[in-house]
């Protein structure tokens, strides 16, 4: 969860075009989208609607939807059950 003074960061990031990762010495600042061809098309129509808040601040309506997103981003974790709190709440 972001502190209130940083709530605008995800909005700004959404406006920026995707950029391929570049290595600077031993550090990688942006992750390469190496899993873009991975099949993450889980079918979730009958999954029970139990919201989960993920570590990236997004709310997923079911565990299945969360698993589909985690397939593309293995670092994604469940932060807590229920909806994520919005920055402006």
UniProtKB/TrEMBL annotation:
Top-level division of the source organism's lineage: Eukaryota
Q: Where is the Kazal-like domain?
A: 34-86
The identity of this protein, by name, is SPARC related modular calcium binding 2
What are the entry keywords? Answer: Secreted, Signal
* SUPFAM superfamilies attached to this UniProt entry: Kazal-type serine protease inhibitors
Q: What is its main location?
A: secreted
Q: List the record's Gene Ontology CC terms alphabetically.
A: extracellular region
- SMART domains, per this entry? KAZAL
| CDD domains listed in its UniProt record | KAZAL_FS
Q: Where in the cell is it found?
A: Secreted
> Which InterPro entries does the entry mention?
Dev_reg/Prot_inhib (IPR051950), Kazal_dom (IPR002350), Kazal_dom_sf (IPR036058)
Organism phylogeny: Eukaryota, Metazoa, Chordata, Craniata, Vertebrata
The record's section on PROSITE patterns has: KAZAL_2 (PS51465)
Q: What is a single Pfam family found in this protein's UniProt entry?
A: Kazal_2
Please state the span of the N-terminal signal peptide per the UniProt entry: 1-21
């Amino acid at each position: 969860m972001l502190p209130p003074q940083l709530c605008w960061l995800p909005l700004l990031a959404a406006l920026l075009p995707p950029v391929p990762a570049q290595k600077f010495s031993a550090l990688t600042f942006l992750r390469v989208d190496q899993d873009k061809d991975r099949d993450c098309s889980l079918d979730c129509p009958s999954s029970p609607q139990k919201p989960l808040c993920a570590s990236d601040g997004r709310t997923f309506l079911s565990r299945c939807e969360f698993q589909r997103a985690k397939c593309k981003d293995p670092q994604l974790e469940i932060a807590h059950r229920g909806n994520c709190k919005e920055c402006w709440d």
